[in-house]
Amino acid sequence: MNKLEIQKKKRRIINLCLVGLCILILTGFVLVDQIQNRKTSVTMTPESAQAQLTELLEELPTAVAKISKHVVANTKTEVLSVEDGEAREFVVKVKYETLDVAAMYEAHKDAIFSRAWEYSEGVKAEGKKVNATLIQIEVQKYILEQLQSGDWQTGGEVEIYFYDTRAEKPVMYISDEALNHLLGGYIAVKEDIKSTTEITVRGERISIASDNTFRNGINQCFGLDNYDAAKPDTSSPLTQKWNAVKADFHKNFIEDDHWKYIVEGIGNTLALTGLSLLLGIFLGLFTAVVRVVFDKTGKLYYLDRIARLYVSLIRGTPLMVQLLIIYFVLLLPIGIEKFPAAVLCFGLNSGAYVSEIIRGGIMSVDAGQTEAGRSLGFGYGATMFHIVMPQAFKAVLPALCNEFITLLKETSVAFYIGVADLTRAGIKIRSITYSNFMPLVAVALVYLVLVLILTKLVGILERRLRKSER
Fold first, then answer.
1. What band does 446 get if pLDDT is binned at 50, 70 and 90?
2. What are the backbone dihedrals phi and psi of residue 371, each rounded to the nearest 5 degrees, phi first?
3. Which of 73, 95, 356, 465 is most buried (CB neighbours < 10 A)?
4. In terms of domains, do 262 and 227 share one?
5. What is the pLDDT averaged over residues 395-419?
6. Same structural domain for residues 113 and 50?
């Protein structure tokens, strides 16, 4: 076994030890986290449960929901007992008395919808636009009168839950069913309004299946706020963080197929980079040849001046400024689309740098190679094409590949002119979900993966070139 094989074996052993150490540390964190999670960090008394329940009920009505305020004001609750649950929870039994909203609604449903319909038609007849708020203001007067005039009392017992989420105090959870009981069938009424598609007005059946404004106006009469039907997370701190990451991931990429923006962005970014590189190689090769011919023969003076000016301008100004000028100043007025404008801009920018790479490669070829070609009877052009350029291209190929990697990252500014590249995909998801971390980090990781893949391919190419030299 030679020294190289011994060194490789040592590196493998060290890597395996590091991986094992990381797994051991992670396992320790998980075990400690699970042990701590078994301990209850808060206590619950009937008095504290009563205070939180009263506070929640007072915060439920929306600002303009007079019916909700009236129902809550006529709801009385009494905590009977508090018992420990099975999953870091407290089961609280509550006795309640409230208004039977469901019974009132069932008795006056046709009248409620008829009143809303007639009011809506009257507003339309006056040439005005009907909105949900106007319907709410009109209808809630009638509903409030019915609640105040009749004997709509009901009561019973329900169970609500308080969960230990390691916050300062337990988090209360009331299921839809429990809240429906506490508020006299309130949730059932709201659901029935949403599902009603036909009403009877003066004996005539009228479809309201497509009239969301009409239904929303009545539903707003029963407005509630500060109510979340999702159960609190009582898992361990590490699990809570992991659940939060999964929820954030689902919201940003799985929900409504947001991942398609990323896939589309990757395709556009690679297409933009590839086309720009082709244009850059063509411009760079032409510019490099012009400058080399002038340096060695003194010919093509005017083309050399233009080539030098082109390289100086591109290398001396920021890429983003070039992009904005090329699109908004030069191409947008004549109707050129965003993507071709971006390809032209990045191609021109890359061409300037590629020209210097190729020119450096040509100039690095020993002058004796040119003299040898001329001594064999080749002209200057034939010598360059058959002898100098193959050697120069082989020398600069890794540098050209690195330029491709650089160009891939530089195309991220294309979103400034509206190109649907990878960066714009992340920004679009961010604007939909109002989440900064997940979309932008995902974009960065995709760029990193693409660059690592290209870097690996460049490394393989360089090793093959070195073998061919030997």
1. very high
2. -65, -35
3. 356
4. no
5. 86
6. yes
Q: Specify the pLDDT at position 467.
A: 66
Claim to verify: residue 157 and residue 211 sit in the same structural domain: yes
Decide if 162 contacts 90 (C-beta within 8 A): yes
**Distant-in-sequence, close-in-space partners of 315: CB < 8 Å, separation ≥ 6:** 352, 353
Query: b/e map of 420-447 (b: 16 or more CB within 10 Å)?
Result: bbbbbbbbbbbeebeeeebbeebbeebb
* pLDDT score for 378: 65
* 283 has a pLDDT exceeding 70: yes
pTM greater than 0.70 (yes/no): no
Rounded to the nearest angstrom, the gap between the alpha carbon of residue 389 and the centroid of all alpha carbons in its chain is 47
Q: Which of 234, 267, 294 is the last residue of a domain?
A: 234
Are residues 371 and 439 both part of a single domain? Answer: yes
For residue 435, give Cα distances in angstroms to 224, 245, 425.
26, 12, 13
**Cβ partners under 8 Å of residue 351, min gap 6:** 279, 280, 281, 282, 283, 284, 287, 310, 314
As a whole number of angstroms, the distance between CA 422 and CA 266 comes to 5
Question: How confident is the model at residue 425, as a pLDDT?
Answer: 92
Assess if residue 23 is contained within a domain. Answer: no
Query: What range does the domain containing 74 cover?
Result: 46-234
User: Greater confidence, 282 or 393?
Assistant: 282
Distance from C-alpha of 144 to C-alpha of 139, rounded to nearest angstrom: 9
Please compute, for residue 297, the number of CA atoms within 13 A of its CA located in the half-sphere on the CB side: 14
Q: Output the six-digit token pair for 422.
A: 């990878």
Helix locations, 74-131, DSSP H: 101-125
CA distances from 323 to 202, 296, 319, 409, 423 (A): 67, 34, 6, 15, 16
- Write down the pLDDT at residue 326: 93
- Radius of gyration of the chain, Cα coordinates, nearest whole angstrom: 37
CA–CA separation, 355 and 262 (whole Å): 33
Same domain for 227 and 273?
no
